[in-house]
Amino acid sequence: MSWTLKSAKPPVVVDTTLRDGSHAHRHQYTEAEVRAIAKALDEAGVYAIEVAHGDGLGGSSIQYGFSRVDEMRLIRAARESVARAKVAALLLPGIGTRKELKEAVEAGIGMVRIATQCTEADISEQHFGMAKEMGLEAVGFLMMAHMRPPEFLAEQALLMESYGADVVYIVDSAGAMLPQDAYARVRALKEALSRAKVGFHAHNNLGLAMGNTLAALEAGADWVDATLRGYGAGAGNAPLEVLAAVLDKAGLNPGLDVFKLLDAAEYVLGPIQHFQPFPDRDAVAIGYAGVYSTFLLHAKRIGKELGVDPLAILLELGRRQAVAGQEDWILRVALELKEKEAGALAD
Ligand SMILES: C[C@H](O)CC(=O)C(=O)O
Ligand SMILES: [Mn+2]
């Protein structure tokens, strides 16, 4: 791996402020917020804008947190606000179904990203079939990709390609990768896939979202994700306005307007952000222990309610190798830690 970016090409950039950022926004986006953000992103030249509950279509629930506004209304609002960018949604098989996908198409999506745990690409076959039948650009998301080696991920990506994926992403859901990890995984997919493009989605828990995105580009990534101000789960994602400035300096700008993005980050997202994600004590623990980034706010809340250190909860979840969909483990682990502590005090 080199840092020259000589092998990199201008990537397709997908913004997920209105989907991954929904985790940080506790799924409370309003239609007016979505309209303003989607319009600003469209005018700044991003290829696609992902809009959905943070956990994908159908995610609004007691397990993942209720959305303030129905996501179909948010998708429609985004679609009405863009002149050029594609509107996309995320779907996790088991959470989202054909019903939600069909409604999202009617609301205006042109692309769906189908996300599975990186060991379970085989459960996505039917969903890629539906996406293609509905005329969508179809993208595969191999989540928690730090948990498996490059050659294993390449096999999973081949499955998604065989189901019809146009792009397959290495998703560093835990923000646990070092640049060499991102590089090796993207490289393996580039070498294995014959038709599908390769993408990379970063989280900043170890402060490496930008570095890992550049490593992915050096490895040949065709698509990359980012969010305004890195607004996303855990310590957030690669910050879009920073990525645009860096790509521009490196001669790799795919057509993004750097100054429009700086304004969008500062004046459109900035005033409504619930908080600025950054690698704080608990977020670094997530990257260090390889825990799903979306567990951060749940662990902080449950830890506060029960008087248990969120860092201890997150480290234990890492030890148990919890993955997406196992949000119920957070409360269970917290209760066990509390019980253990009470037992130790009684002894
Ligand atoms: C549903 C997740 O938030 C998808 C994602 O962005 C990730 O795994 O990272
Ligand atoms: Mn993410």
TrEMBL record:
<dbReference type="InterPro" id="IPR017629">
    <property type="entry name" value="4OH_2_O-val_aldolase"/>
</dbReference>
<feature type="active site" description="Proton acceptor">
    <location>
        <position position="23"/>
    </location>
</feature>
<keyword id="KW-0456">Lyase</keyword>
<feature type="binding site">
    <location>
        <position position="201"/>
    </location>
    <ligand>
        <name>Mn(2+)</name>
    </ligand>
</feature>
<keyword id="KW-0479">Metal-binding</keyword>
<feature type="binding site">
    <location>
        <position position="173"/>
    </location>
    <ligand>
        <name>substrate</name>
    </ligand>
</feature>
<feature type="binding site">
    <location>
        <position position="203"/>
    </location>
    <ligand>
        <name>Mn(2+)</name>
    </ligand>
</feature>
<dbReference type="InterPro" id="IPR012425">
    <property type="entry name" value="DmpG_comm"/>
</dbReference>
<dbReference type="InterPro" id="IPR035685">
    <property type="entry name" value="DRE_TIM_HOA"/>
</dbReference>
<dbReference type="Pfam" id="PF07836">
    <property type="entry name" value="DmpG_comm"/>
</dbReference>
<feature type="binding site">
    <location>
        <position position="292"/>
    </location>
    <ligand>
        <name>substrate</name>
    </ligand>
</feature>
<feature type="binding site">
    <location>
        <position position="20"/>
    </location>
    <ligand>
        <name>Mn(2+)</name>
    </ligand>
</feature>
<dbReference type="InterPro" id="IPR000891">
    <property type="entry name" value="PYR_CT"/>
</dbReference>
<dbReference type="Pfam" id="PF00682">
    <property type="entry name" value="HMGL-like"/>
</dbReference>
<comment type="similarity">
    <text>Belongs to the 4-hydroxy-2-oxovalerate aldolase family.</text>
</comment>
<feature type="binding site">
    <location>
        <position position="201"/>
    </location>
    <ligand>
        <name>substrate</name>
    </ligand>
</feature>
<feature type="domain" description="Pyruvate carboxyltransferase">
    <location>
        <begin position="11"/>
        <end position="262"/>
    </location>
</feature>
<keyword id="KW-0614">Plasmid</keyword>
<dbReference type="GO" id="GO:0003852">
    <property type="term" value="F:2-isopropylmalate synthase activity"/>
</dbReference>
<dbReference type="InterPro" id="IPR013785">
    <property type="entry name" value="Aldolase_TIM"/>
</dbReference>
<dbReference type="GO" id="GO:0009098">
    <property type="term" value="P:L-leucine biosynthetic process"/>
</dbReference>
<keyword id="KW-0464">Manganese</keyword>
<feature type="site" description="Transition state stabilizer">
    <location>
        <position position="19"/>
    </location>
</feature>
<dbReference type="GO" id="GO:0030145">
    <property type="term" value="F:manganese ion binding"/>
</dbReference>
<dbReference type="InterPro" id="IPR050073">
    <property type="entry name" value="2-IPM_HCS-like"/>
</dbReference>
<feature type="binding site">
    <location>
        <begin position="19"/>
        <end position="20"/>
    </location>
    <ligand>
        <name>substrate</name>
    </ligand>
</feature>
<dbReference type="GO" id="GO:0008701">
    <property type="term" value="F:4-hydroxy-2-oxovalerate aldolase activity"/>
</dbReference>
<keyword id="KW-0058">Aromatic hydrocarbons catabolism</keyword>
<protein>
    <recommendedName>
        <fullName>4-hydroxy-2-oxovalerate aldolase</fullName>
        <ecNumber>4.1.3.39</ecNumber>
    </recommendedName>
</protein>
